[in-house]
Amino acid sequence: MKEFIEMLRKIKPNVDFENEEALVDDGILESLDIISIISEIADKYGVVIPSDEIIPDNFNSATALYELVEDLK
């Protein structure tokens, strides 16, 4: 998980990914950030996130996103 959060910080450096639970709902992550995250996950983990999984619930926290990636591996 630590490595995963470091990856997220490279995309959006000033975000508290350990504690934030509403990244999308609070407007912290915008559409271009999400595209960058999806691309980085594909490159780093070899996981393609299907379009039907690109929903706020899966991107509102680092934990939710990490769990999604683990489920898709």
Would you write up a description of this structure?
The protein has helices at 2-11, 31-45, 56-59, 62-72. By secondary structure, it is mainly alpha-helical. The protein has one domain: Non-ribosomal Peptide Synthetase Peptidyl Carrier Protein, Chain A. The model has no long low-confidence stretch (mean pLDDT 98).
SSE inventory with pairings:
Layout: H1 2-11, H2 31-45, H3 56-59, H4 62-72
Task: Looking at this protein, list some descriptive labels.
single chain; 73 residues; mainly alpha; Non-ribosomal Peptide Synthetase Peptidyl Carrier Protein, Chain A; 4 helices; 55% helix; 0% strand; globular; ACP-like_sf; Acyl carrier protein
> Structural class per helix/strand content?
mainly alpha
Task: Write the CATH fold name.
Answer: Non-ribosomal Peptide Synthetase Peptidyl Carrier Protein, Chain A
Task: Give the N-terminus to C-terminus distance in angstroms.
Answer: 15 Å
* CATH level 1 class label: Mainly Alpha
Protein name: Acyl carrier protein
Organism: Coprococcus eutactus
